[in-house]
Amino acid sequence: MRSDGMMEQLSILIDQALEEDIGTGDITTDWIIPPDATTTAFFISKEEGVIAGLEAAHRTFLQIDPSLQFEMSVAEGDHVSPGQTFAKVEGASRAILTGERTSLNFIRHLSGIATLTQQFVRAIEGTSAVIADTRKTTPGFRFLEKAAVKSGGGVNHRVGLYDMILIKDNHVAAAGGITPAVARCRQQMAKTRITVNIEVETTSLPEVKEALDLGVDQIMLDNMTNMQMREAVRYVHQVGGDVRPLLEASGTISLDRVRSVAETGVDLISVGALTHSSPALDISLNIL
């Protein structure tokens, strides 16, 4: 999150969010609050969770008024308890009130993702599997949402369509099979001299065997039953040996089911719900 490119992306996103909210002006605040009034407002968590999005919350206020002072008593990824005050913002009352909702929208949403991710991570403790996100993200928010997943203890799958080859069912159908799809990718890698990992989505053991024979880097076990996944894991470990591909479980992964999925022996469990269905963490900004 600290790279210059990401900071620029965040600044643009905040500007868009503020423009959307403020429009021609915050008439409620401007008509009620004197321009020279100052105050201190406190971020308070109303429930247990994991904090993420502090940078976005902070920079929201700075982009309204650079003189505002923002202090945090927790770091990204820290746990908070109900009633805990974890940050404060001081300065011009108008700027604080105008930025309140946008700042909270960022931190509540991202903390919700981090909190749900931690719940999944804790559910599989003691297994060899890790929890990963997907590309099922809010348009424009992917870099923030994926950072929140990491704050919750998960890992990032591919960032986008450009940094990894993932041959899914529609690619297979359009190419006429897994083998020709992989062959075309390798031909292009040789031609362009671009080397990236290749993952193949499979839905049955015969497809797993075909992908394994092709020597791909990762095999997705999509919407398989636990029994099917155990069978696939057993086969890949026996045949692939030390150079076997990573095995990823995906599809219909709920918090109730994730432990049993991890116990099949897969390496990675991708969960779309982390970013597309996480409830916002209940956080308020109060002037006390």
Short description, anyone?
The chain is of the alpha/beta class and 288 residues long. Helix content is 46%, strand content 18%. The relative contact order is 0.15.
What does this structure look like?
It is a single chain. The protein is α/β, with parallel strands linked by helices and 288 residues long. It has two domains: 4-121 and 279-287, Aldehyde Oxidoreductase, domain 3 (Alpha-Beta Complex); 123-276, Aldolase class I (TIM Barrel), CATH 3.20.20.70. Helix content is 46%, strand content 18%. Helix 8 (205-213) links the parallel strand 8 and strand 9 (218-222). Helix 4 crosses helix 5. It starts with a helix and ends with a strand. The mean pLDDT is 97.
How many H/I helical runs? 11
Q: Supply the number of structural domains.
A: 2
Question: Strands of the largest sheet, in order across it?
Answer: 6-11-10-9-8-7
CATH topology (level 3) name of the largest domain = TIM Barrel
Separation of the first and last Cα atoms: 31 Å
Beta fraction: 15-25%
What would you report as the Rg, rounded to the nearest angstrom? 23 Å
Mean pLDDT, all residues: 97
Q: Which descriptors apply to this entry?
A:
288 residues; alpha/beta; Aldehyde Oxidoreductase, domain 3; TIM Barrel; 6-stranded parallel beta sheet; 4-stranded antiparallel beta sheet; 18% strand
SSE arrangement:
Blueprint: H1 4-22, H2 27-32, E1 38-45, E2 49-50, H3 54-64, E3 69-72, E4 79-80, E5 85-92, H4 93-123, E6 130-132, H5 142-151, E7 165-167, H6 169-175, H7 178-192, E8 198-202, H8 205-213, E9 218-222, H9 226-240, E10 246-250, H10 258-262, E11 268-270, H11 273-276, E12 283-287
Parallel strand pairs: 6-11, 7-8, 8-9, 9-10, 10-11
Antiparallel strand pairs: 1-5, 1-12, 2-4, 3-5
